[in-house]
Amino acid sequence: MQDKFRLGVVFTHPTQHHAPLWRKLNEQPGVSVSVFYLCNQNQVGGDKQLGSSEPWDVDLVSGYQYEYLKTLTGKTASKAEKKLLNPGLFNRLTPQNFDAIFLPSFYTYSYRLTVLLCKLRGIPVIMQNDATIITDAHYKRSRQVILSVLYPWMFGLADYWISSGDHNEIYLRHYGIPMEKMVRGCYPVDRDRFDKTISQHQQEIQQIRQQLCWNGDTVLYGFTGKYIERKNPFEFIEAIAKAHQTDPRSRGIMIGGGVLEPEINQRLAAMNGEVLNLGFVNQSKLPLYYAAMDVFVSTSRSDPHPLVISEAMAAGCPAILSDRCGNWGYSDTVQHRYNGLVYSCGNVNALVEAILALTKTDTRNAYSQHAKEVFSKQDLNCELNAFLEIIDKIKSKARKATVDLQQTLPQTSSSTMPVKSP
Question: What are 65-84's pLDDT values in tens digits?
């Protein structure tokens, strides 16, 4: 093995969550990172599901080596989709180039090709996903039976797994991943960027609050994400409207976009300002809006591990989330009645009760402090340490294999050397 551990990453596109991780990993002594992106989504255009064509306005490609791989057409794809197939992987993923390869799933054809090449060429595979039993529950019974056979074989192809939370760990164990192949990590959020942005723009945060609040007593609840059925945005709207009837200080804001935006705007137009739709906000400004919120709410019907909750907590914002989100648990992102509240999805009255519970300043402040404490152990460094632990495991295994090989080689000595005649 080389002096530097050479980690290769195969990933669909640059994201605001993982790019800082590749950068930080690449800064570690004895580690080099090269990322192969399958498309340039977010770099030349926005997320179409958010209804935006704006590229992300934060740096996602500096501090590490990267390459956009061409598809079979000879062009760089602009959208992450299942059919992505990038033939450049054939000559890049070799033992001469890499000591291990990380990829997040089997979703794209290129991901499947990556696993095949690594298995054929003896390159260790590291994987991580955010799936949970909760979010698999909506599958038909027939599909669940097929997955119960298919997933243990597929997941077993990875040499190491990084789990991303309590429910994800249960999910991996359910599909046969032994604990010795698993290291606890998280889905990364760049706390340093959030802290820096928030500390440097306190005045702007106050201006945002002044624009969004009725007065100094307003309690601001935020919803961030795609306006799609799975995210269940209308439950947020209805709950805020009901909570406002009991406590007029309650007001909601929505940040995002998507196919449901026309219906959302129509519903909000019939209300009296209890909820505002702010539309798309780019990455550089999002931390300021989280900091301006008092409480973050996620109402998803099915959401493995929504990172918007971690982002909110990075700004010290406690969360209310539905039990169909996968990031609550005893040691997960949201810990019920400690740094947030979990309610039963579809039960609007239960969500209203949670909203009203956090109108109390003392409760909200305590949860906010706990949110910061919990997130400090689930930020970028948590994921970094998980990678470094696996790298150490791979290096130790490689050293042991070298020693074992040396011990099996025939030993030569002068007593066994043939004597040449003069």
Answer: 999 999 999 999 999 999 99
Q: Evaluate whether 43 touches 250 at the Cβ level (below 8 Å).
A: no
Q: How far apart are CA 272 and CA 336, in angstroms?
A: 32
Mean pLDDT value of segment 217-223 = 98
* 348 contacts 235 by C-beta, under 8 angstroms: yes
pLDDT of residue 411: 60
Q: Give residue-wise pLDDT tens across range 270-323.
A: 999 999 999 999 999 999 999 999 999 999 999 999 999 999 999 999 999 999
Backbone angles phi, psi at 403, to 5 degrees: -65, -45
Query: Strands of 275-279's sheet, edge to edge?
Result: 275-279, 250-257, 219-226, 295-298, 319-322, 340-343
Residue 405, pLDDT score: 78
Whether residue 121 contacts residue 89, with contact meaning beta carbons closer than 8 Å, is answered with no
Find the mean pLDDT for residues 365-376.
Answer: 96
Reported in sequence order, the residue ranges of 284-380 that DSSP labels E, i.e. its strands, are 295-298, 319-322, 340-343
Distance from C-alpha of 5 to C-alpha of 116, rounded to nearest angstrom = 22
Question: Would you state the pLDDT for residue 137?
Answer: 78
CA distances for 43 relative to 1, 26, 76, 235, 365, angstroms: 35, 21, 12, 32, 38
Q: Is the pTM of this model over 0.85?
A: yes
Residue whose structure tokens are 């255009």: 45
User: Which residue spans within 309-369 are E strands per DSSP?
Assistant: 319-322, 340-343
Three-state secondary-structure class, residue 361 = helix
Q: Which of 245, 206, 240 is nearest to 354 (CA)?
A: 240
Return d(Cα 347, Cα 229) in angstroms, integer: 16
Rounded distance, CA 130 to CA 327, Å? 9
Positive or negative, the Cα torsion across 288, 291, 294, 297?
A: positive
For the chain, report the end-to-end CA distance as a whole number of angstroms.
44
Q: Give which of 260, 345, 263 is closest to 297, Cα–Cα.
A: 345
d(Cα 402, Cα 189) in Å, to the nearest integer? 38
233-246 vs 261-269: helix crossing angle, rounded to 10: 20
